[in-house]
Amino acid sequence: MELKDIIKEENIVYKKSKLILDNVMHYCPGCSHGVIHKLIAEVIDEMDIQEKTIGVSPVGCSVFAYNYIDIDWQEAAHGRAPAVGTAIKRLLPEKFVFTYQGDGDLASIGAAEILHACNRGEDIVCIFVNNAIYGMTGGQMAPTTLVGMKTATTPYGRDVELNGYPMKMTELVAQLPGTCYVTRQSVETAAAVRKTKKAIRKAFENQKEKRGTSFIEVVSTCNSGWKVDPVKANKWMQDHMFKFYQLGDLKDATKPEGSEYEQYIKE
Ligand SMILES: Cc1ncc(C[n+]2csc(CCOP(=O)(O)OP(=O)(O)O)c2C)c(N)n1
Ligand code: SF4
After folding, report:
1. Which pLDDT does position 94 carry in this prediction?
2. Distance CA 203, CA 163 (A)
3. Substitution candidate for ligand 1 out of 134, 149, 237, 241 with most atoms within 8 A of CB
């Protein structure tokens, strides 16, 4: 059988979402941002809300997210995406509004904005890409950098005495009454990608039902910033990041019994 016999319309099992534009992505090969964009596009497409959705893009590597997903976008200054998202949703409550931020953006300069938006229970979806590093600006330490992890500004590894402890933003926002759904996912395997897509869909459905803030952390790699190839980066993430940033739902207001984590902390 030749390639031309295989590449036929009837054999296609997967198609790129029509919301993903043809622009060539600037992300490094192996970067998680592209996969997460794909999932957001698929969910918006499947919910048929392309015309009704406004994304708020950040300052990190995903600053150009607006070049890749065919919806309306607003760029926000460093850390301010949840404040800008709040304003958009309050002015245009019929729109679906989501923010997209890296860990440097969300957990560093934007720590106040995200905590207060979640505490107010703004009816928005917050997507938090945690690759434990400032990817865009050359791999400096982020608030989420693990203890002992080497970065451009911690060449001997993050030292608690000097740099403090890594911050678990997802655990912090889960405590705030305004959040209705808080989850931590990843995208390094097909199974993980499917779970993350389900989480994004759930978050948008929550917004439809006006339930409050949904917060999705996606534990990710930055192979360029971590200075390893994409395969090693995934393995390192599985071995080290998941131990500290445990995957799963932390809060789910749609479940009367609560998420497994909520049940655990009640006991
Ligand atoms: C007020 C302000 N401070 C600093 C910067 C420089 N800056 C741009 S992107 C970035 C880091 C972004 O890292 P992160 O949010 O983790 O996203 P990633 O690039 O890893 O996806 C920084 C510090 C800026 N643009 N504005
Ligand atoms: S520097 Fe890191 S976060 Fe940025 S595109 Fe490359 S791999 Fe992705």
Report:
1. 97
2. 33
3. 134
